[in-house]
Backbone:
């Protein structure tokens, strides 16, 4: 067991992968908690698609993919926030319009680059084992900034997430809080795409937060459990990928999903099995023993 745990760390590319997955899991767990609290899972999916044209343009121009993705995601997020102020249109409708348009633009831009197929596959499914030292630094800086902003705006985000009308009544700037959260989701997704890919990145953002929601009723505790599950799922998925030579991104997501299923079934207060036992006791049904 000790050899199994230590052997991957002998390789530099695995060291980089572990660091990025660990940081992505923590960041997505924290940001995802606010997304889950607000019931905004769809915005995560939208932003994951919205960063595509920025990454495609950056690829064609041979510039930073991370910067390109962040710029495109922020532009789309700002557009959604502005257009959704129209009371005739619900936010999910506006998100659907913009993320479809952004993804379509990305496909068109990508098709102009020679040999774009391989790069598109890497973007869609992740390339965590090909991460460079510069990527590790970028993820570390971006993650640290996100965690700092989240800590500074924690109370405001929680208030707006629990009751938007009350938050608006006490004078909180709901529009700018939405913009800040959209921007944070964008950056969290961009720095995590290399680990699990564009298609699966939503799972890293939402699944650990959903697990934590089942395990605790306290928001502060949720903010600790979700990143722990995200980091643990990432590390476990990488170990399994190394041991069985399978896709790392898929295994990371499947590990997180397995944890979610376990929480859904066995969570002490909200799990399927404990709830079933409580209902049986409440109705006075006592199992017959031979």
Residues:
């Amino acid at each position: 067991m000790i050899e199994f745990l230590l052997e991957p760390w002998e390789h530099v590319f695995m060291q980089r992968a572990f660091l990025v997955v660990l940081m992505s899991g923590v960041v997505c767990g924290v940001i995802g908690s606010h997304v889950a609290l607000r019931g905004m899972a769809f915005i995560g999916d939208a932003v994951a698609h919205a960063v595509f044209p920025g990454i495609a343009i950056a690829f064609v121009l041979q510039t930073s993919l991370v910067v390109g993705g962040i710029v495109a995601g922020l532009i789309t997020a700002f557009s959604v926030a502005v257009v959704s102020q129209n009371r005739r249109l619900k936010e999910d409708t506006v998100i659907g319009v913009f993320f479809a348009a952004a993804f379509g633009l990305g496909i068109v831009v990508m098709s102009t680059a020679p040999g774009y197929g391989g790069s598109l596959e890497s973007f869609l499914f992740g390339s965590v084992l090909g991460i460079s030292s510069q990527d590790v630094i970028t993820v570390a800086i971006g993650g640290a900034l996100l965690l700092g902003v989240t800590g500074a705006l924690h109370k405001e985000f929680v208030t707006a997430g629990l009751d938007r009308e009350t938050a608006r009544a006490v004078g909180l700037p709901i529009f700018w809080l939405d913009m800040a959260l959209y921007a944070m989701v964008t950056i969290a997704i961009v720095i995590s795409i290399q680990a699990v890919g564009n298609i699966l990145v939503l799972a890293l953002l939402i699944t650990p937060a959903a697990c934590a929601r089942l395990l605790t009723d306290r928001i502060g505790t949720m903010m600790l459990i979700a990143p722990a599950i995200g980091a643990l799922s990432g590390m476990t998925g990488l170990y399994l990928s190394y041991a069985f030579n399978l896709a790392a991104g898929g295994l990371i997501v499947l590990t997180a999903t397995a944890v979610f299923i376990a929480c859904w079934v066995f969570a002490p207060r909200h799990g399927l099995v404990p709830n079933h036992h409580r209902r049986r006791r409440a109705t006075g049904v006592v199992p017959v023993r031979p």
DSSP finds 13 helices and no strands in the chain. The first helix runs from residue 2 to 6. Residues 73 and 186 are 6 Å apart (CA to CA). The radius of gyration is 20 Å.
